[in-house]
Specification:
Elements lengths: L1 E3 L2 H13 L1 E4 L4 E7 L4 E8 L4 E20 L2 E19 L5 E8 L6 E10 L2
Parallel strand pairs: 2-4
Antiparallel strand pairs: 1-6, 3-8, 4-7, 5-6, 5-7, 5-8
């Protein structure tokens, strides 16, 4: 597990409000969003013990992707930032019960189209 506290960890909540969007996602819904230029998008899920987050996403440009959670002002990354991804499909089993956020970061100078589907599974 990587603990990235530095400047990014302290500024992330502010960055989300200014440059991106945060979704507290519903089950079994495909979401399509335009991630603003130099912005980000988060989708957060509460997971209990023995639950998993099953997700897939696709974007029309490469974006950084991570899974993280917050402890006070710290941002903890059980799935570190993957610098370039335009597609992924996997299952995340958390180390503990917690609210976890999927996050996509667009470093391009134009919006990026993102579609994703995620749901909590106890299988």
């Amino acid at each position: 597990m990587v603990d990235r506290v530095g400047m990014v960890g302290r500024l992330l909540p502010c960055v989300c409000l200014l440059l991106g969007s945060v979704a507290f996602a519903s089950e079994d819904a495909e979401t399509r969003v335009a991630v603003k230029a130099n912005g980000l998008h988060e989708a957060c899920y509460k997971l209990r013990a023995r639950e998993a987050l099953v997700y897939r996403f696709e974007s029309d440009q490469l974006m950084a992707f991570s899974i993280h959670y917050h402890v006070g002002k710290k941002v903890i990354y059980p799935v570190p930032v993957r610098p370039l991804a335009s597609r992924s499909e996997t299952r995340f089993v958390p180390p503990k019960a917690q609210e976890y956020c999927l996050m996509w970061e667009n470093s391009a100078d134009q919006p990026v189209q993102l579609s994703y589907h995620a749901h909590v599974s106890n299988k």
